[in-house]
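Subject: complex prediction, re-run

Hi both,

The earlier run crashed halfway through, so I resubmitted it with identical inputs.
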Amino acid sequence: MLCGALAFVGLQGANAQEKIFRAAGTPHQPKVEVSWNRYYTYEGVVDIMQKIAKAYPNLAKVESIGKSYEGRDIMLITVSDFATGNPDRKPAMYIDGNIHSNEIQGTEMALYTAWYLTESFKDVEFIKELLKEKTFYIVPTINPDARNNYMNEPNTASSPRSGMIVLDNDGDGEAGEDRFDDLDGDNHITMMIRKDPNGRFIKDPNDPRRLVPVAPGQKGEYEMLGQEGIDNDGDGYVNEDGIGYYDPNRDWGWKWQPDYIQRGAYKYPFSLPENRAVMEFVMKHPNIAGGQSYHNSGGMLLRGPGAEEDLATYNRDDVRIYDALGRKGEELIPGYRYLVVYKDLYSVFGGELDWFYGGRGIYTFSNELWTSYLMYNENKGRDAQYDFDKDLLFGDAFVPFKSYNHPQFGEIEIGGFKKNFGRAHPGFLLESDAHRNMAFTIYHAYHTPRLSVQSVEEKDLGGGLKEITAIIENDRLMPTHSSQDLKYKIERPDYVSISGVKVVTGMIVENEDFNRVSEQKNNPEKMQVANIPGNSIVKVRWIVSGNAKYSITVDSAKGGLATWSK
Amino acid sequence: MKKIYLTCWLALFALVCLPAVLMGQDYPTNAQITQRLKALKSKYPNLTDLKSLTKTTGGKDIWVLRLGKGDADNKSAIAVVGGVEGFHLLGVEMSLRFAESVLANNADVLDEATFYIFPNMSPDAYEQYFAALKYERRGNATPTDDDRDGSVNEDGFDDLNKDGVITLMRVKDATGPYIMHEADERIMIMANKDKGEAGQYLVTSEGVDQDKDGHFNEDGEGGVAFNKSFSYQFPYFTPGSGEFPVSQVEQRAMLDFMYERFNIHTIFTFGPGNNLSSPWKYNAQGARVRVVTSVLSDDAKLNALLSEQYNKTISQKNAPSNPGTDGDFLQWAYFHFGKLSLGTPGWWVPTVKEAEGEKANADKNEEVNFLRWATQEGINDVFVPWTAVQHPDFPGKTVEVGGIKPFVKYNPPFAMIDGAAAEHNAYLVSLAKMLPSLEWIDIKQESLGNGLTRVTAKLRNKGQLPTHTEMGKRSRWLRKVRVDMMLNDKQSFIAGQGMTLIDAIEGNGFVEMSWVVRGAGKVNLKGGAAHTGFATAELTIK
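This time it finished cleanly. Structure:
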């Protein structure tokens, strides 16, 4: 069995040598072949995850963290060097995608990250070191039900957005009674227009795909009737009560507000099973020090606060760290800007990134993937999509207007951009942006705290007493506790312990030169350190008696473990 | 008229005695609560539905008892909630007595209204009253790290004087901030430095500093407090709040149940929060902002009216002010759920005058007042006299244990409940009679010629309460009033629609509807929502 496997790999190697030349930065001869220029349904995503875990059992494992509303497993892939330390004790980066079901490509970006890390471990020294020190928890889709609905059922580029719970959106006592209708049967919900002598639009004479408003005083030819559908419940409105509506990104437990304040909120924080599964995982994994969620679109690297009312939560020390990460992101991902949700986007209460940061003290970004900038590598505005569709996609993104006999509107035309365009990346641009966004998360992960016992000094105090001073270093950007964490003591303190000697007392040295120390009277063998700041040190001192050998352990929830022995 | 009614009703209550076995002489244990609920279920099988929504971390049932007739889930309903605080035994008993009383004496109210009784929302904490070591507990059985130091439940109370209750501990210490109260030296108060008073005692709860962190009993058993962990003004990262709002299984089970019952119009809470003795105050600034912090103006007026009626029904006066506290249930029910939310403790310690020879209680100290009231009522055994103990944390110092016993300030002796219970039962019944209830009136038809008829009708709310609070109009968890005009297949609308949604109808208010219909024959009208009940009417167009 083993021989057979080796022989197979050998053969593949020979073929590859003949036919394939290595491109810099891309895994060569990957064990798991994946095309990164297309999208995967939930089943496709799980299949790739399982293939990765099977190919790299020492680097990846797949598990379910809970069930979706419709009963699908929410699948997580953990990536780390399992041979070096317990992955659940290493500083970790959490990544998810697809919280909004129509914002699909976050899933592929997250999945690309798992694939790239495992396939590059062997050849890329940086990745090898990274996976020794860090863990990646990756949940490619946290909305699997509605991901499949978006792909398999008729939708617009913006629906369903919620999950598959169907609510009563118009307050009439019935839920989901007036949904989209795919009148032309093409699995895309596009626009309905109608010839109307009083209409205010005409078809652009140079481009019949475009409806343009006429100038004041001019006569138009068309009126817009909205998205494809009929008035199914006879209340005089079309498509007013479909799947949802609620917003899974208004369901998280930091400064949550009810629906009348924050449209889209459901019953209470984590009232959606998918988010509850993520919350439970995060609560059980205090080693998560960085967070990333993927949305679309607009080319943004977003941090909180989601709402102006929560401005005070993001204090200066933490904003400095966000700024350092965000600006690096702008450099790594052309066309993306580092922005603040409440100020630059819109107001969000109960968003995921705010809970990760406000509720757990985890530095977290939401990337709004895809920007029209990427069509021509310059900002040409939204109208450029017509040219892009024509010249680069050769019309594949558009359903040409065709006439249709509507039961309520009579003779109409149906057409418009397909659901897979406008928000999702066109295939040929997907891999490139996935790699860049991944690089941003790797930078983020790299800068989670890294702790070591930099040095240990001894001083004989006479009378059988000895002073031991350990310098604990954190040589990365992030502290073991964000300021938000320190403010509320969200995570326990770091412990710096000494064993093997009899400890008389212990203290944290605040100022070496003037011997300003703070003593810990109780249990000085296990010193409690509130925080080990980024790119900085903490000095811990013990007065001990005896001359035995000893060892020192640093134990931090978000900073991991470090040991030193004499 | 009202007074006469009330008197009759009280007399009736006295006649209908509940079996003594079930009633007991003290507040019921969780097992006895279950027994009483099951007894109601078996005695009134057609009027009740009993369900355990979930079990708490401590393995206790969360019961909901529905009182209703017929299509009960589509009648305007009041949820009655007890045990929002584990130490408020009275609220549990009041909610049970209400259920028992409605079924025995006022079942006719169920023709129009439904009640959902949640007798005890803190059964884990409630159990502490019956435990070997008694203390006023708020939190459930979920383990929590109250002082957030990385250890769980490492420093709880210690019964230093072995009397089975946790009281206070005072240490004679010149650095302590406490002194004895002038009017009653048993009561310890903070020295007022502004008046030149110097502290003489340290005062803390009874126990030792188990984890030697300088704090006493700061992280004992007692996890998340039901009444401190809802989403309205959630007190983040404080003891008892949990890690985020609505984190506990009993809260979620209750809310899921209520979110599915669109017929719930009003939520009535027996707990510390009180907007009945005095109504919530309107604050224009707080009502105007996006994240609302004040009762809205129409609702403030409604609250004032209901409060006035409450004070007419309830004989006790001078309730201590408590509009609610951060993360509580009472405010959540209004501010986040949008329902009419009313709350009262059901009983409080009356303010008493000093007896002869006693010093005046000049600063109206509640504890001094409590002890005086207890003495006047002949209630003994409410105070543990200060007694010296040896304390490991204070070697060489005088340490005494003593103070008011747990529970007694909020829960009167069981034998004293009857009056308050009867009055609250009467108030709740009167409230149910005020619930919105719809009727069609002034149904008219007017021929427009050529087979066209204009139909007009008024949908009237004959209840005193509006169909929607002002807040409820904003909430997606109250449906709109839906009007259906159902034609036969030979008729059609010339004007108007088959279905119309109306935001709200005032108490004793109405909306006028109008349609123009082509074709003759019978038409049917239906109007309402689950929380108002439905009104139907029929008309034959000539």
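Confidence is low (pLDDT under 50) at residues 1-11 of chain A.

- K.
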